[in-house]
Amino acid sequence: MRIPLMSIPRFGFGIKGLDEMLSGGLIEGTVSSIIGAYGTGKTNFAQYYIWQGLIQGQSALYITLEERTSRILGYMENKGWDVSQYLDSTFTIVNLDPSDFNLAINSVKNELPTLIKKTGAHRVVIDPVSLFEDLFHDDATRRREMMRFLESLRDLNCTSLLISEADKTNTFASKYNLIEYLSDTVILLKYARGEDVNDVHLAIEVVKMRMSQHSREVKPFEIHQDSVTVYTEATVF
């Protein structure tokens, strides 16, 4: 029997404004991506996504391709979150070295599905998926392998969030202009400048969301030491 869309479980970020834009959160079992240039807070949002799951009793898996475990834990603890109580039980952090092509490809394609099954992870973050995309030397191979990889995530009954660098010349697109087409939901983080070029703000947009209604407005947001605020009542100039 087909489940009504409104009754499908959702995985929120615990960020009121953002969850509101997503009609409650990411849809269970989907693959979503956050795209943004440096300094827009991509990893911040990913860590909120992980933390929200942990405090709700869900298992979480954080795959990092460029940060050490100690730094990930440090960032989260600086927000006032006691993540140590979840380590080795419902929270697992895995470091992958993308410098070794064969090892990295093997780890992501073969070992990651096994790890997700073993940990029973409800929420999975890959930060950044751009480094995995870098491993493929031509567009055709990259598209084929990424399609297979995302389908394997959907088959594992987890709700995944992929962090992607924005293209250097077009900050509205991912580095390879690919992940946004393959993902079920796409969240774009960007800079917004007013008439005064020195007045720089951060803005968020839910570019697409399959199987659900979502806000199509661009909203300003701020990152504080212990919180993120999305101003859904405000407008971006």
Could you provide a short overview of the structure?
This protein is of the alpha/beta class and 237 residues long. It has helices at 16-21, 42-55, 69-78, 101-119, 129-134, 139-154, 179-182, and strands at residues 10-11, 26-27, 31-36, 60-64, 91-95, 123-127, 159-165, 185-193, 200-209, 219-223, 228-230.
Shape: globular
- Multimeric organization: single chain
Which spans have pLDDT < 50 for at least 5 consecutive residues?
A: 1-5
Lateral strand order in the biggest sheet:
5-4-6-7-3-8-9-10-11
Do you know the CATH architecture of the domain at 28-188? 3-Layer(aba) Sandwich
Summarize model confidence as the mean pLDDT: 90
Structural class: alpha/beta
Bin the strand percentage.
15-25%
Walk me through what this model shows.
This is Circadian clock protein, KaiC. Residues 9-237 form the KaiC domain. InterPro entries: Circ_KaiC_arc (IPR022420), KaiC-like_dom (IPR014774), KaiC_dom (IPR010624), P-loop_NTPase (IPR027417). This protein is an alpha/beta fold. It has a domain at 28-188: 3-Layer(aba) Sandwich (Rossmann fold). It is built from seven helices and eleven strands. It has helices at 16-21, 42-55, 69-78, 101-119, 129-134, 139-154, 179-182, and strands at 10-11, 26-27, 31-36, 60-64, 91-95, 123-127, 159-165, 185-193, 200-209, 219-223, 228-230. A nine-stranded mixed beta sheet has the order 5-4-6-7-3-8-9-10-11. Strand 4, helix 3 and strand 5 (91-95) form a beta-alpha-beta unit. The longest helix has 19 residues, at 101-119. It is globular, with a radius of gyration of 17 Å. The termini are far apart. The relative contact order is 0.20. The model is unreliable at 1-5 (pLDDT under 50).
